[in-house]
Amino acid sequence: MIQLSNINKIYKTKNGLLKALDDISFDFSKQGFYFIYGESGSGKSTLLNILAGYEHPSNGTIHSSYSLEEIGVVFQDSYLFEEFTVKENLSIFGSKDFEIEDVLMQVDLSDKVDEKTKTLSGGEKQRLCIARAILKNIKVLLLDEPTGNLDQKNAVLILDILKELSKSILVIMVSHDYALVSTYANYEIHLENGKLVHEKNKGFNAETKTDFTKQKKISFSFGWQLKYALGILKHKVSLNIVSFILSILTLTSFMVIFSLVHFDKHDRLYDAIHETEINFLPLYKEEYSPYIDENRKLWSGSFIKNELEAGNSKPLPYLQSKVTLEEDLRIHPSILVVPDDYSFVSLCGSGGIVITDFLKEYYYEAADLFHQDMHLSFQTELTYGSINHKITGIVPTEYEKEDLLAFQHNPEYIQQNFEKLAYKYAMIYISESIFWDAIYGNPLSLSGTSFYYPYSIGYNLNIKNNFKIYADEPLILGSKIQNKYDVIVSSKIYNSMQHTEEFMVQTGKFCDIYNSPNANLYQQYFNITHLTEEVSVLGVYEKDSNDIFISTEFYNELFEATKDYQFQGFLLEKSEINLKKFISWTLENHYYFSLENCMDVYSYTNQKSSIISAFSIIFPATLCMTLLFILYSGYNLMKFQQKEIILLKSYGVKKHKIITPFLMVELLKNIVAFIIAIGFSSLLIKQISQIIIVKDTAFQILQIGFSTYWGTFALVIALVNLGILLPFISIVRKEIGIAFKNCNL
């Protein structure tokens, strides 16, 4: 039973308040056919919506012995799932086969069970709506103009079904067709301007009838959600294609932007070094001084070696330029000076003079290489040397035969692959003892300061002091060396010093180059004041040169003190360091890896500001694309499916079950779009990398990492959810009765 007491319903409109129902009081019994009629705007549909629970009265009370699940509603327009069959429309909410068979027999649709709903006539669709309402285990059936769009024959068929149902349940119908419906109704309710103006009881004899349905929980199972999602994907083709394209563009755009904004020099350096096949990493240092050009290279000497060792690294000194093997000038091998007990990987032979298998194939064809003499000459930063020695060992490089042939016959290929040649293929490992024996006794050429005119620091960095061991050279003035810091100079040097006509022992005083305001400039030079501040000029020999003869003791002292200044720089063995930590250390201490791949990364850093400024163009375009993506990735799709969303809601389907099919559709589209966008973004990033560096990059400095990929995907999924949730919330908040009438689909 349903009792209405003083029900009022007031709407707010643009023109003010509208009173749709005015003090309605009425009692409905448990069974019977109730007919509500009146002119348009009389409040019929509003009253029906309040009875269904779709709207709430502004004031007044309703006493009902029925739950909302026990009330079924049929509207004038048949709101059905058009692409599903008759059976699927009834089973989508959890109805069993035997229940469907029974109800289809009730509404005379048994022969249409497997036909798609869109093929049914208007009358058949209305009967299917009634069948669906019955399967809800209803005790009250509400109908809003169910015969309004039907011809006389179908209208009568519908009314016959309703008349039969009214014998066991409560049927309440709204209609304009008084003449037809009144012949079936047991009760008549006449409304005018929201008021109950007349009611008529024609009498009713209730019949006891077995309820043909069983209590069940309305369900929209996962299987149905998936099927519904595939239906959306299939039957909204154009909309889904637009959404798919926008998804690809949005994903690609975000990946590119994230790779630029989140560029991390540390990670890119790690990638560049980790990807290279070269195991030995060349380093140089850059410092800033207000007195010299910024980023002056400081690439040799104890200063750098000490810093590297302080950072727990084991630097190995190397030579590269002016190294000649077998008088072959096509390639210049690199000399790496290693400790006598250095441990080689996969060494064949023993330490001493070790070459790579590449050099073996390049220079030697003899089967017994260890009986071959190697003739090697080189020039260090301070002196020169030569080695005639048998090869004692060979280490593998896993070189390609194509590389060997190209190196043998193609000089341009040598230049293009210089790093691979210098730090991997063409390496000569020389033990320290052999290397130092090869250069000991040769002149040491030092510059940066001197003890003779003009006595200034760095007077001419190109003029070097060549220190040689004195060996009884004939003198024109003075005497031989007697003490450790005695020197003999050339007549050229002696004439540049202040002296009297008669020879007198001169005292030469070295200047400390690190007291100069340009001290950073001299980091690569040896500071003699570390050993002595002054020398005594005891003699002069006849020669126009910068040679200075010194004692064996002084030479030995210089030789030991300048060992770290002999080389071009230092290499670090990649396998011996913690690469991630070491890269952090180099960045903090202004060290640079002088590999071409790494230089690309440093070049990007210098041009990063120009790239960021380009975002003023890129970012707004991306935002516009994102808004379009949100619009087409859910909003329009939800709007097009509004009728079905409201229908699902009206049948008590949980909100999360209603929204799941739409999320499925978008997730499927975006997974495919994500895979395609990875390819597009990689190509685009490569092109941007080449534009940034303004050359063919040896290493793609802009890379999309794991976090960027999944971060982008997560962002797009969030946007999809936003595009779906906003319209979904607006739809489910609607009062269903009003919403149905506003569905112009």
Write up what this structure looks like.
This protein is an alpha/beta fold and 745 residues long. The chain has 24 helices and 29 strands. The strands form five sheets. Strands 10, 11, 12, 14, 15, 16, 19, 20, 28 and 29 form a ten-stranded mixed β-sheet that branches. Helix 7 packs across helix 22 and helix 8 (237-261) runs antiparallel to helix 20.
Count of β-strands = 29
What's the shape?
rod-shaped
Mean pLDDT: 83
Instruction: Kindly report how far apart the N and C termini lie.
Output: 36 Å
Sheet of most strands: 10 strands, mixed
Determine the strand fraction and express it as a percent band. 15-25%
Identify low-pLDDT runs. Answer: 208-217
Estimated helix fraction: 40-55%
Structural class, please?
alpha/beta
Rg estimate, integer Å: 47 Å
Number of helices: 24
Oligomerization:
single chain
